Each structure stands twice: as structure tokens, then as C-alpha cells.
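Q: Could you write out the predicted structure for this multi-component system? I'm mainly interested in how the pieces pack against one another.
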Amino acid sequence: MDIPVMVANLGEATSSPVRLLMLGEKNEVLATTQVPALNPGADKTLRMPFDYDGKLAQLTFRLEENHDFDASNDSLTLTLWGPKPTGYVGPEPGLPKVPLEAEGGRLEWSRVGRAV
Amino acid sequence: MVGSRYHISQESFLATLALDSSGAVRLSYVGAADYGPDALWLVRLADKSPIMMPSLEAMSRTPGLQCNSAWEDTRNNYRPHGVLLTANDVWVKAFQNTVPDGRYLFRLNPHQIFTSSGQPMPNRVAMHTWHMNPGHYATSSNYELIVRTAWSEHYAFAATEEEARRGVGTYLVNHDQPDLGIFANATISQLKCRSPAGWTFR
């Protein structure tokens, strides 16, 4: 199948042609395509061929050797599926039905799940 | 200064009569610009050099909202849900029965965004979601409001022009550089496949 990815030029000058990479979890290159020069405000949707093996948990798109105003939007990571659970996934056994309770005036957050 | 306003023509310009310091009558008027995005020129006779005036239409061109959604876990741990993005209480995008992932770009109408010729104006961006409970930390999101302006005014006191230009930059302003970004707008609506475990990728 092909994955459509939108590339837009949010800047104030015409961009240079660059290569768009599709990377796997270990930064291995899965596919590439060429992004043409885009005028300010213009965008283009590119299609990247993707042969999903059912195991890849993360997919990253990255503009290769791109130097522009904001580097933080030069890559995009999509989350796929994790491995199928092999055991019980859920709250710890023995938790009370009403998990939030004040103990000494302080809520015991750690009882209801992951600490943040 | 004493002034009186006269609408000589509502469509063409707004004129003002005033007395200057020497008691002479001065005529000023504001008229539509011959060029530019709905810009206005202020003419204060007898000085015939017009002054370009900021206007909402001219200030804000093709604004955009860049939203980012990130997860703490893999896709199979999230149930499809609804997400509504608003900018100043105007609907921007409604995701229905899906799991938004990645960065999205939404173009806004200039009249939906508050701008000014000087300091940035406050705008209100909201993300409403319908899933789980109000206290979850399963997803994280942020946004960036991007406004392209024809000009902006900043006041600065400095020894040189270069120093003044450096001093007024308190927030990111792109004057002349390209800025390519990758977005998942097309991905979420078209990428559908079946995972090995039976979950649907939306």
C-alpha cells in the first residue's frame, strides 16, 4: 500500500528540492521520494510505498539534509501497533473499586496507575 | 486639535477636517490602496506623502494552525474517539471516531484570527476530546498558531538599525527563509490497513 504524506512550505521563500525518507524503528530507510521546490504557502501530497510486515511499531518520515527556518517540523513519526499482549493487561489485582482516596489529606495517585 | 469627521464616500475614503497649531484647516483622509491586500493609505494634506496603515485584512494573510498529537504507547492501546479543534471558538477540524496521530496543518481564515500591528494579540485555541476520563495522561498535544503578516511595527531604542532589529525579536519571526514541514493530514484519512492483531488503523 501507499502512505500519503503532506509536505508544506510554511516559510517566506521558495524551498529547495529535497529527498523525503521513510524510516523504520532503527532508522533504516524503507522508501524515498523527491519533494519538488515549493512556493511559500504551497503544499504537495506524496505517496510512499509501504510493505507493512505487522511488526513495525513506528514509522518516521524525514526530510534529508533540509536546512530551513524551523527544523522541528522536518520529521513526522507515526505510531503503529505494538506486539500482541501475551498475558493480562490491566489494573493491578486487589485495587479498590474506588481507587482515588485521600490519605492524610493527600491523594494517593500511585494507586491508580502510572506515575506521571 | 479640533476635528470633525465627514463620510464623503463610504466606499472610497474617510475624511477628517482639523485645525493645526497655526490655526489652518487641514484635510486628512484614509482611502483604499491602489495595490496590496486591502491596505489603506493615510493622506494628511498638505503633506502629499501617504502613510500605509495597518488593517486586519492586510496584517493577517493565510494563517495556519499546526497541531501535534503524541502518544505514550502503541496504537493498539487507544480507542477511536472524537477530537474537536477550535480557534477563537470557530470550528477548525472535527476528528470523528479516529485516533489522531502526528502533526497536522489547518489553514484558517484571516478574519478568525486576532492580530495587531504591534505586540502579538491573544488568540484562543482549544482541543476538545471525548474519550476516557478527564484525568488521563495517555496523549499529549500542542499547537502552534502561524500568521503570515505583510508588516508589523515594533518600537526600539538602539544605537544602530542593526541593533534595533536584533532587539525587537522576542518571538520567532521568519522574514525570508523557506520552512518545509511534514504533516499527517492526508495520512489519517487514507491510510487504512488491518493489523495482525485485528485492530484497524484509521
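A: Regarding packing and overall arrangement: The longest helix of chain B spans residues 161-167.
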